[in-house]
Amino acid sequence: MARLPISSFSVPKLKDLPKDVRARIKLVQEKTGFVPNVFLVLARRPDEFRAFFAYYDALISKESGLSKAEKEMIVVATSAANQCTYCVVAHGALLRIFSNNPLLGDQVAINHRTADLSPRERAMLDVAMKLAREPQCFGEDDVEELLAHGFTREDVWDIGAITAFFALSNRMAHLSAMRPNDEFYAMGRTPRKKSG
Amino acid sequence: MARLPISSFSVPKLKDLPKDVRARIKLVQEKTGFVPNVFLVLARRPDEFRAFFAYYDALISKESGLSKAEKEMIVVATSAANQCTYCVVAHGALLRIFSNNPLLGDQVAINHRTADLSPRERAMLDVAMKLAREPQCFGEDDVEELLAHGFTREDVWDIGAITAFFALSNRMAHLSAMRPNDEFYAMGRTPRKKSG
Amino acid sequence: MARLPISSFSVPKLKDLPKDVRARIKLVQEKTGFVPNVFLVLARRPDEFRAFFAYYDALISKESGLSKAEKEMIVVATSAANQCTYCVVAHGALLRIFSNNPLLGDQVAINHRTADLSPRERAMLDVAMKLAREPQCFGEDDVEELLAHGFTREDVWDIGAITAFFALSNRMAHLSAMRPNDEFYAMGRTPRKKSG
Amino acid sequence: MARLPISSFSVPKLKDLPKDVRARIKLVQEKTGFVPNVFLVLARRPDEFRAFFAYYDALISKESGLSKAEKEMIVVATSAANQCTYCVVAHGALLRIFSNNPLLGDQVAINHRTADLSPRERAMLDVAMKLAREPQCFGEDDVEELLAHGFTREDVWDIGAITAFFALSNRMAHLSAMRPNDEFYAMGRTPRKKSG
Amino acid sequence: MARLPISSFSVPKLKDLPKDVRARIKLVQEKTGFVPNVFLVLARRPDEFRAFFAYYDALISKESGLSKAEKEMIVVATSAANQCTYCVVAHGALLRIFSNNPLLGDQVAINHRTADLSPRERAMLDVAMKLAREPQCFGEDDVEELLAHGFTREDVWDIGAITAFFALSNRMAHLSAMRPNDEFYAMGRTPRKKSG
Amino acid sequence: MARLPISSFSVPKLKDLPKDVRARIKLVQEKTGFVPNVFLVLARRPDEFRAFFAYYDALISKESGLSKAEKEMIVVATSAANQCTYCVVAHGALLRIFSNNPLLGDQVAINHRTADLSPRERAMLDVAMKLAREPQCFGEDDVEELLAHGFTREDVWDIGAITAFFALSNRMAHLSAMRPNDEFYAMGRTPRKKSG
Fold first, then answer.
1. How far apart are CA B179 and CA A103, in angstroms?
2. Cα–Cα distance between F90 and F180 in angstroms, integer?
3. Do F and C make contact, counting contact as 3+ CB pairs within 8 angstroms?
4. What element of type H or E holds B120?
5. CB distance from A47 to chain F under 8 Å?
6. Is F112 exposed, middle or buried (0-12, 13-18, 19+ CB in 10 A)?
7. Mutate to test the interface with D, among E175, E176, E178, E179 (most CBs of D within 10 A)
8. What chains are in contact with D, requiring at least 3 Cβ pairs below 8 Å?
9. Cβ-defined contact of C189 to D185 (cutoff 8 Å)
10. What is the ipTM score, two decimals?
11. Which of residues 102 through 161 in chain E touch D, CB cutoff 8 A?
C-alpha cells in the first residue's frame, strides 16, 4: 500500500510564510495539538489562505443559532456527498466531539437518513444535501420546511452558507489531493463522562 | 437524538430459533465477543438465514486468491456506494483489522480513489464499483483490466461474486433499517504491534 | 451476427459435478423440459450454487402472501432496471405463464408504469424499483405505502428480499455474461384457455 | 389487472378523418393486417399526422446505406432507453422480422451490449444511445468511430436522424400513453425457413 | 479561438436545391432578413427538410391555445436541458421578441425555476422539462397539474408535441454541429415601446 | 409575469452598513456604473461579505497565468452547470467584454463543447466542469491533461480554485434567490473596434 503525501502541490515551509499566516497556524496547533493539513496545504497562497479562514471563522467559529454539532453535521453530510476524504475525516472527528456521540460522525457520513438524528436535524440535512448536490432545485419550499422545524431565517442562511463554503472546501481538497492527518481518525471515539 | 432500534421488523428471541440457527449465532458470539445484529435481524426467516450465511461462508470465509483484507475492501467500497450503514460500519472494522491499518476502513468508505491503495487494489475496486453501480456496463474489458493487474479468472469471479452478494446484503439492511452494533465503530482503530 | 456462448467463464460437465448439484439440475430439467443456463453457469462453484438455489427456493419457490405472478413482476421489473438479459428473458417467460397474460412480461420489462397493472401491483413495483436502484432512499414511508395497499409486513419483507436477491442475481449474470436459453423467448406467448 | 385504452387523448373515428389520412391508414392496414395504434392516436391532428409519417417515410421507408434490420435496431435500442412501450413492442416485432432472428428484438431492448451483434452493429448502437441520452456529448469523435466501422457520412446522418426522430416519437407515445397493439408482441417469434 | 462552420456535414448550394425548398428558404429570408442556418443545414435531404418544416408549421406557426411566447418558452427551456446551442440561441431571440421582455430568453435558458414567470408558465415548463428529460415518468398526474393551471387537453397536447419536436430538433443540431447565426444573439435585447 | 426581488432575504440599507463595506460598494459602483446585486445581497453579513470579496480578489482580480477571459470562461461554464442565473448573466457579460467576443458568453453557458474555443480553452473547461460536477473524480490525470496543453501547475491551481469559489458562489446565489441586475444582459453585445 502506498502512503500518499499531504498534497499534490508544493507545501511551503513554515518559516517562509507571512507572519500572520504563521500565527494562525501556531494558534490552531496549540489548540488542537497538531497542525491540520488544510492549513499547510492552503498556505502556499497566503491571500487565499486568509480569505478561506476568514470565511471559515465567520461561519463556523462564530456563535449562531446553530449548535457546534449541527454545523459539523452539515459539513460531514455534504462533504460525504462529494466523497471528500479530508473534510469527512477531520469534521467527523469534530462532530463526535461536539455531539459527545462517538457514533454520529460515521452515521452521518455514510447515510444521514439512518443516523440517530432528531426530525429537526434530519430536515436540516435534507435541505443541506439538496443545496450541495442539486443547488438549482433549492427553493422557497425548502426554506418553509426549515422554518416549520423551528429554524429562523438567519439559521437558514447559516445552513446554506456552511453548505456553500464546504462546496468550495471539498473542491480545494480534491484539487490538491489533501490528506487528512492520521490523528483525526481516532479522535472522539470514546464519549466523555458527564461531570457531576 | 433518537436512538433507532436494530431492525424495523420484529426480532425473534434466541430461544425460539431453530437449533442450527442458534448454534451459528453462538459460534459468532464466541468468536467476536458479541452477536452482530445481522444475525438477529435475519433470523426471523430461518431458511433465508441459512442461505444467506451459507453464501457468505462460500465467498468470504473460505480461502481464495483474494486476501481477507482485499475482500473487505470490496465490501466496504461497494456498500458505501449504496450508503449502507450496517455493512460499512461492520466491515470497515474488519478491514481495519485484516489490513492492520486503522485508516483504511474510513478511506475506502469515503473515496476509494484517494485511499492508500496499491494499483492492483485500486483496479479491483474500480471494477467492483462498476458492477455495484452500473452492472449493465460490466464487460470483458473489465476482466482484461483485472487480469492485467495479476488477478486470475477465479479471482475475477470472487471479486464479482462478493460485489453481487453485498448488493443483496445492502438491500436487506436497507429493507430492515439494520443498525450496526456500537462495538464495530471503535474496533481496529489501533494498529497491532508486529511480533518479533 | 455473433452468437455469444452461455458464459464467459468455464462451464463444467454435468458428470463432473457433485451428486446433489446434478440432482438439482436433473429436477429442473424434468420440470421445465430443458436446463436453464443459470444452473450450468453457477455450477462451477458448488457451494455458491447450493446457497444461491437455497435462497431462491426460500424466496420464490415457497408459498407466501405474494402470488407467483407478483413475485415474477418484481423480478422482471428490477432486472430490467439493471438491464439483465438473462433474468428479464427467463422470468419474463415465467411472468407470462403465471399471469396467463402473454403481454405482461414485455410490458413490465419495458416500463412498469404503463403496464396493465392494478394499483396494488403498481405500488409494489414502485417500491421494489426504489430498493433496486436507490436502496439508500428506501424508508418507513415506503413500508407505509405498501401497507396502505393491503400488503402485510411479511409481504413487505418478501418484496424487499426478492428485490435484494435479484440485485445479486443480475450481477452474477452480468459477471458471467450469462446467456438466456432460446426456449424462454417464446414461452407463454399464447394464453391458456380457461378450463371448464 | 386493468387493461389500458390505446390513448389518453380522444381518438377520432376513421370516417371523420381527411381522405389522405384515411388512405394512409388503409394502406398500412392492408400491408400489416391491422392498423397500428400510432396511426389512430396521431390522426386527431391531421397536419401533425402528415408531417410525422412523411418524416417516417423519409427515414425508415426509403432505401439507404443502412439495412432495414439496422434501422430497427436503432429504434428498439433508443426507445428502450426511453422506456417507450409502444415503440419497443412495435419495432421489436419489425426487428425480429427484418433480421429473421426471433431473439434480437428482446436482446436489443434489454441490453444492446449483450445482444448477438457484430462489432459494426454494436458501434452503431453505442453512438445512437449517446445521441438519445446525452445528445450534448455527441461529437466528431463519434462520427470518426462510425467511419472506422465502415459507415459513410450519409450513414451517420441516417443513424443520427433515426435516433432523433424516435426521440420525438417516444415522447409522443408517452404524452398520449400510446398502447401497442396486442398483435405486435407475438410477431416474428418463429424464424422463417430459408428458401432454396 | 476557432470559428466553427455552420455544419459538420456538407451544405448544398441554394441553386442546387428543389424549387419548393428554395421557395421556403426565400420566404424565411424575406421575413427574418437572413436565412437561419437550420434551413441550410437540413436542406441536403429535401424530404426530411419538407417533413421537418411541415411539422414545425403544424406546431409552432399555427394558432393554438398557447401564445407565441409560451411556445418559445418550451423550446428554450427544453433545448437548454439538452444543451443545444442552435435552438437556445435562435429561439431565445424569438422568446425575447414575442414576450417583449429582453431578459426572458436568458432566464428561461439558464434556470426556468428562477425566471420571471407566472405560476401557469412555471407549471407548463415543469411538465415540458419532465417530458424532455425523463419522458418515461410523464403521466396522467402531469396532465392533471396542467389542467389545474387552466390549460385545456388540447394545450397539453401542444405542450407535449412541441417538447417532442424539439427533442428531435436538438438531436439534429447536435448531429450536425449546427451553428446559430450571429444575428440571433443580439435580437430583441431592447424592449419595444408600447404604441399609443 | 412576476418580477422577482433581488433576494429572498432582507437587504440592508447602504447607510446601515459598516464603512469598509460601503466603501467597497462605492468602488464597484464607480467602476461599473451600477451596484451589482451580489454586493447588496451579501452585505447583510459583513464578515462573510469581507471574506467573500477578499477571496474573489485573490482569485479573479489579481494577475495570474490565466487571462481575464479564461477566468470568466471557467465561471460561466461551471455556473451554467449549476444553473445559477446570477453568475451566468453577470459573468457572461464580463466574458463578452474581456474576450471582445459578443457570442462567447452564451456559447460557453449553453454548451462549452460547441463554443468557438481553442483546444487549450476546451481542455481547461473540461477539467473545470469535472471538478464542478463530480469533484470526487478529479485526479492527477486531469492535471496531466492541463499540463499537456501548456498550463503550469500554478495555472491548474487557479483553474481549480476559481471553480471551487464559484461552487460556493452559485450556492449563495441559489440560497438567496439572487437576481442579476438587468444591466448585465445587454453588456458587451457589440464588439469594440480595434484601435489603430
1. 11
2. 7
3. no
4. helix B119-133
5. yes
6. buried
7. E175
8. B, C, E, F
9. yes
10. 0.96
11. 131-132, 135-136, 138-140, 143, 153, 156-157, 160-161
Q: Kindly state the average pLDDT of the residues B164-193.
A: 95
* φ and ψ of D102, to 5 deg: -70, -10
| Alpha-carbon distances of C95 from C100, C173, D180, E68, rounded to whole Å | 8, 19, 19, 48
Backbone angles phi, psi at C83, to 5 degrees: 50, 45
Taking the CB of residue E100, how many other CB atoms lie within 10 A of it? 13
Q: What is each CA distance from B157 to B78, B91, C11, C37, C177, in whole angstroms? A: 16, 20, 13, 17, 12
Q: Among all chains, which residue has been given the C-alpha cell 386493468?
A: D2
The one-character DSSP state at B181 is P
**pLDDT single digits (tens) B121-150:** 999 999 999 999 999 999 999 999 999 999
One digit per residue, the tens of pLDDT, for chain E of length 196 reads 578 999 999 999 999 999 999 999 999 999 999 999 999 999 999 999 999 999 999 999 999 999 999 999 999 999 999 999 999 999 999 999 999 999 999 999 999 999 999 999 999 999 999 999 999 999 999 999 999 999 999 999 999 999 999 999 999 999 999 999 999 999 999 978 765 4
What do you get for the CA distance between the two ends of chain D, in Å?
Answer: 47
Cα radius of gyration (chain C): 17
* H-helix segments, chain D: 19-32, 37-42, 46-56, 68-81, 85-99, 104-110, 119-133, 140-148, 153-176, 182-186
**Distance from C-alpha of E179 to C-alpha of A116, rounded to nearest angstrom:** 54
C-alpha cell at F3: 418580477
For residue E177, the tally of other CB atoms under 10 A from its CB is 21
Write down the number of H helices and E strands in chain B: 10, 0
Write the burial class of residue E9 (CB in 10 Å: 0-12 exposed, 13-18 middle, 19+ buried). buried
pTM for the model stands at: 0.96
pLDDT tens, residue by residue, F151-181: 999 999 999 999 999 999 999 999 999 999 9
d(CA A175, CA C153): 48
